[in-house]
Amino acid sequence: MKILIVAATKFEIEPLIERLGAINPSGSRIFSCNYKEHEIDFLITGIGMVATAYHTGKVLNESYDAAFNIGICGSFSRNIEIGSVVNVYDDRFSELGAEDDGDILTLEELNLNGVSRIENLSGALHPLIEALPKVSGITVNTAHGNEDSIKKVYNKFHPYTESMEGAAFMFVCEQENIPYVQIRAVSNYVEKRNREAWNIPLAIVNLNKQVFEIIEQL
After folding, report:
1. Fewer Cβ in 10 A, N or C end of the chain?
2. Which residues, other chains included, contact 32 with Cβ-Cβ below 8 Å and sequence gap of 6+?
3. Strand extents, DSSP E, 36-160
4. Model pTM score
5. Is the Cβ–Cβ distance between 143 and 96 less than 8 Å?
6. What does the alpha-carbon distance between residue 81 and residue 202 come to, in Å, rounded to a whole number?
7. First to last CA, the chain
8. Are 199 and 212 in contact (CB under 8 A)?
9. Which domains does the chain have, with CATH numbers?
10. Per-residue pLDDT reduced to its tens digit, 152-183
């Protein structure tokens, strides 16, 4: 099986790269390895939707059997514990549209062509993935840290998670018709910015452990 694993930063997937012995001899964005019967490429795109769409689009092609987007995220729900690993199966470009005073208008509400919401219908890749909590998310350019804007976006879309890359990755996979999954670990709650309440190390440990277990059993 040939797998592409996409992450915004090396920091988020470094434990997995090291555990699988992936190497980057050319100095490019791609680390590669063979593990069991799998060929695995790790692509580091850089942060944000534009970088993710550009670099994933350049690399992803029909030679891959599956693509993973893995990384950390924020959670709007206090029912999801920090450190939890989730499957973001439904994601949205929440900023794509227009403001109408205090309201957010989506492309659909504006009767404009385009994609603002993506639901993963590519099929189950593995029971361990299906066993993860399935949540809806939003993808943003600016992480929320203001109580008014948090309330506004939550009341409109009722998301569970927030990232800066997820929907862009999903869009590319849909265009290329490659089975995919977006797996994220919660590092913080979406609230007024409070870095003291974040736990990025725990999220990264749990994320990499979970993805390794999936690869081990594929």
Report:
1. N
2. 22, 23, 24, 39, 40, 41, 42
3. 38-44, 66-75, 85-93, 97-100, 103-106, 117-119, 134-139
4. 0.95
5. no
6. 11
7. 8
8. no
9. 2-217 (3.40.50.1580)
10. 999 999 999 999 999 999 999 999 999 999 99
